[in-house]
Amino acid sequence: MQDENVLIPEEGNEELYERRSFKVDKGQEPVRIDKWLQMRIEGATRNKIQQGIEAGFLTVNGNTVKSNYKIKPGDEILLMSLLNPEHTELKPEPIPLNIVFEDEAIMVLNKPANMVVHPGVGNFTGTMLNGVAYHFLQQQPDLTEEALPRFGLVHRIDKNTTGLIVLAKTAQAAAHLAKQFFNHTVQRKYVALVWGDVEADSGTINAHIARHRQYRKMFDAYPEGETGKHAITHYRVLERFHYVSLVECVLETGRTHQIRVHMKHIGHTLFNDWEYGGDKILKGTIYNKYKQFVDNCFELCPRCALHARTLGFIHPVTQQPMHFEAPLPNDMQQVIDKWRNYIGHRNQGQV
Hints:
Helix content: 10-25%
Number of strands: 16
Strand content: 25-35%
Radius of gyration: 23 Å
CATH architecture of the largest domain: 2-Layer Sandwich
Number of helices: 7
Number of domains: 3
Oligomer: single chain
Structural class: alpha+beta
Largest sheet: 9 strands, mixed
């Protein structure tokens, strides 16, 4: 029996699931698959495994099966399980949410800046999921806190990144969405303001991502491909402002800080990204007037200038394509407008 842990959900991944595959040995006697898995997965209960099988988290030879399926030698078993981010105690809180779409299966939200997606070390309250829990309780007053869904989050975005995020409201929807994220069929487009005049109009960044060797809260790119996890970002320039560029980034993989790390790797750190050095003047002139202009921009957008603008996927129930777009938030839009005006005046010789 082979057990290959293909994708481990950890802080280095935006996708919040793990994918485990097993191949049944040649001499294996027929036995129910739920019992067989329980014996091989530490901490797994028969009931949880059965729920996952019913929800579609498990396939045998590419097909879904029932809990009473009896395994055969040579069977290839694929199991996806969602990581429930550290919310053993999820306190409902009346936090304002910008809900873009909601039905019985999914919820799409437009997350503001300065909001953590899920509870974790140092952020047990005030997160988006705390607000979602409160929202669910308002919808179903007879629902207890213990009965709140624990399987909804299949991806995340950074605290100071704004934009679209999808949650599953049922285990079946979670399984369906997790598979789409793993297969890279979810469309995710981000808009970022980066330092420097990006040379090419478009390109692809292919560099592994792992924790920074010196600063453990940061990540770094490892182009040799021997360290970290496979990561690909496609980009194209939307507008140029000489000293900064507005770019669109399309994620093929979903690693934590992927766009921030990849753009820095090619010499174009995100504007006002203090963790990666973007909160300093990296391109431009030495004049005090320019420094004052940049400082004003930093004040207008006191965060990393990154927005998850587009999200597209197949609805887990209707099987219809879903497409959402979130307009740029005011802080980024104001900074972009200032740069546009600054360069316009500069070209006219006024600055």
